[in-house]
Amino acid sequence: MMALLGPPVLLLALVASEVHCLPWFINVSESQGPGTILKSFPFNCTLHMPILELIHVKPPTTFFNPPSLTRWHGIYMGMVTLSSSARLDALAVNHYELQLRFTCGNYVMEGLLFVDVQRDPGYSSCAGRFASPAGEIIQVRETVTPGTQLYTLLLPGVELQRAQISIISAQDPPYFPGPFSINGQGWLLAPSQGLKGQGQKVFQLQILVTFGQNRSCHGTLKVKVLPAPSSQISFLQQAPNITIREDLAPGSEVVQVRARGFDVRYEILSPVPCPLFSIGRVDGLVRTAAPLESALARGAGAAVTRLRVKAYERLRPRASVELDLTVNVRSVNRWPPRCLPAMLVTEIRETTLVGTVLNTFTCTDPDSSGSTLDYKLRFYSPPGLASLCLRDRALEVNATLDCDAPGACFQHAASILVLNGDQPLTEVPVLVMVTPVNEFSPACVPHTFRIREDAGPYTLLGSVVGMDKDYPHNSVEYFISGGPSTFSVDRLSGEIHLLGSLDYELQKSYRLTVLVTDHSQDQDPTQRRSGSCTITIEVEDVNDHSPECQPPFQELTIYTPLGRSVEVTKVSCWVPQEPQRLTFSYSIVGGTSQSRFSLQGAILVYNDITLGPPWPEQPHSYELLIRVADSGPSIPHLSTTATIIVHVVPWNASTAATRIHRVTVPSMMTPLLVTDTEVFWQPEPWLAQMLQTPNKPAHELLLNSIQGTEESIEGFMEAPRMEMPQAPSSVMSLEHFDGRAQDPRTGRDYLFNTLTGARRWL
């Protein structure tokens, strides 16, 4: 959408608030120069990129720049200015019409801008044809008197402003016979040497006019010299200098001279006689009169001949003019020079030193044994390479040769051009082949590979990468120097393979010395270099033996105080083939119930979780299966199973004593459990003693009872030896506490009554 600043019929608006309709009229002074702003317009085009164009100018001129369009605070500002070639002159053109076109999206409107050029009385400038690109042209006779006024430059106000006028273009001989001059009044004066002999020439002069206050302009003045009337004779050209070949046939044209006059005739005045050249009396055409080769061979002064030619009018022989001609005869080489060698094909090593001379060329010219020959080196493949150079007649190595990069080892195809002056005479083909040299030893990087000890034959461990600074960089072979035959290396790829079996317990690592040998990197195939690196192979341990437990089968009987945990036994396992393996994991995989058994590492613990009555009164047997597996980062994890039968006998005031049998069965035998039980009644020792000796302290009797119990369970449980608080002396008060135990939560000992469950903390 486009919105104009004003009524919809308007395309352009003035910067001021006042709105004018097209077309516009503006006045500009002729003193305004390039860059002057003639008109500016604001536009409003919100949804598109507007375009402002100058369609045409009437009358046609280049004085106006294409209008510019810039954005400022959301509004586009158009501007029309004078171009760098603008030279306004109200006397020449005082009115211009500019056709403008404004485009905003699909909306297009055109309008006219009229520019009136106003006369500036105080402004002086170069005007007329003098200031035009073609310049002012005047014609004068070549017979004009030296120093004569030829032209007057008329500019408005020149005398009033006392302008300075000067010729700024060059007037160098021989084209100019002498310099033209111009004075402050604008008078152009002929050269002091005159213009005789300058007929048909046009002299172009650039004139600078400088006004007061550093103002200036310039223009062009062309002076065309007309020939003298026919009553005077003159040559149309100055004395020429001609060069011809010695192989021109007699009668060949050399040069034609022309003179201005009536019925002109020509003749050679010098040398007389002239055996080598002649001139046409009517046409002035100079021709050869004899073979020039024989004259040069005789050395008869034919190399350079100076001819003096006379032109005169047939009816007035005294009206004459003379012209000097110089004819240079150039020798022609009929036979190409002979060079030794005629062709150069050679090989050089890439290590050839700079400055080494490959060959020296000797050439002679059969046509002229004493002639001077020039030699030039031209490259063909690769072009422009500076590896070789030609010094005088010697072909030398110019730069360091290198074959250690792709495409760097070139075949240098070139030729030696033998010249006489600037004309090639012969060409000597040159082919220089650079051969590689094995300069560097290959190398490889030390590396460490890891492999499992159970890896099979032909297992790939990795590859050794050898590199060589010589090109090609991977042209190497691999070998193992000495070392075990357990491993091999591929000769071409450097891959390391396992050939035999590994045993971590016998050898944990291997060190291989790998030799890297290059090939095909020298012109001589026997020139080979080698390097080496150390490859370390570490064997990773793999479990290949199951652990064994001693004994594999155990049968145990324990007495358990109420509410206490008891160590049952410690599982002892090891791997006979790998005695260094000491870390195992233990887990109960069968036989436990109600979580009464647990493992603390290798120790089997019975947990009595009964906290109050009724307590179990009968013994109970458990057959436990304990899985023992090796642990650690190595896989697989192998395991074995140990069997432990545990008879748990509750410990109270009336205990059925059971004989404990530790039965160890070899791992290859089937275990057989035999239990012999003898039932008898025995009161608690401390209670019986108290009944017999009522005066003895109750706590001593209780401690003695505990000590006797420890002996009966053969050390499987250690009862705490702590003093009891002072007990009452009456027997009835002591009968209430017939047992002792430890609280599993706090670890504190206490006495308890097996019938009532009453406790007394110790």
Structural summary, described in words:
With 762 residues, this protein is mainly beta. A four-stranded mixed β-sheet has the order 1-7-6-3, with no helix packed on it. Strands 8-14-13-10 form a four-stranded mixed β-sheet, with no helix packed on it. Helix 3 packs antiparallel against helix 4. The longest helix is centred in the last third of the chain and has 15 residues, at 698-712. Residues 443-553 form the Cadherin domain. It holds the Pfam family Cadherin. This is Cadherin-related family member 4 isoform X8.
Uncertain segments: 1-21, 653-736
Distance between the termini: 103 Å
- What is the percentage of strand-forming residues? 35-45%
On the 0-100 scale, what is the average pLDDT? 77
Question: Order of strands across the widest beta sheet?
Answer: 1-7-6-3
- Tell me the radius of gyration: 64 Å
Number of helices: 5
Protein name: Cadherin-related family member 4 isoform X8
Subcellular location: Membrane
Domain Cadherin: 443-553
Keywords: Calcium, Membrane, Repeat, Signal
Give a concise summary.
The chain is 5% helix and 41% strand. With 762 residues, it is mainly β.
List the helices and strands and how they pair.
Elements: E1 24-29, E2 37-43, E3 51-58, E4 68-72, E5 75-81, E6 95-104, E7 107-118, E8 136-141, E9 149-152, H1 158-161, E10 164-167, E11 181-182, E12 187-189, E13 202-211, E14 215-226, E15 234-235, E16 241-245, E17 253-256, E18 259-260, E19 264-270, E20 277-279, E21 285-288, H2 292-298, E22 304-313, E23 320-330, E24 338-340, E25 344-349, E26 357-360, E27 362-364, E28 374-381, E29 388-391, E30 394-397, E31 411-420, E32 423-435, E33 443-444, E34 447-452, E35 460-463, E36 466-467, E37 476-481, E38 487-489, E39 495-498, E40 509-518, E41 530-540, E42 548-549, E43 553-560, E44 565-570, E45 573-574, E46 584-590, E47 597-600, E48 603-607, E49 620-630, E50 639-650, H3 685-692, H4 698-712, H5 731-734, E51 739-742, E52 749-752, E53 759-761
Parallel strand pairs: 1-7, 8-14, 16-23, 25-32, 34-41, 43-50
Antiparallel strand pairs: 2-5, 3-6, 4-5, 6-7, 9-12, 10-13, 11-12, 13-14, 15-18, 17-21, 19-22, 20-21, 22-23, 24-27, 26-30, 28-31, 29-30, 31-32, 33-36, 35-39, 37-40, 38-39, 40-41, 42-45, 44-48, 46-49, 47-48, 49-50, 51-52, 52-53
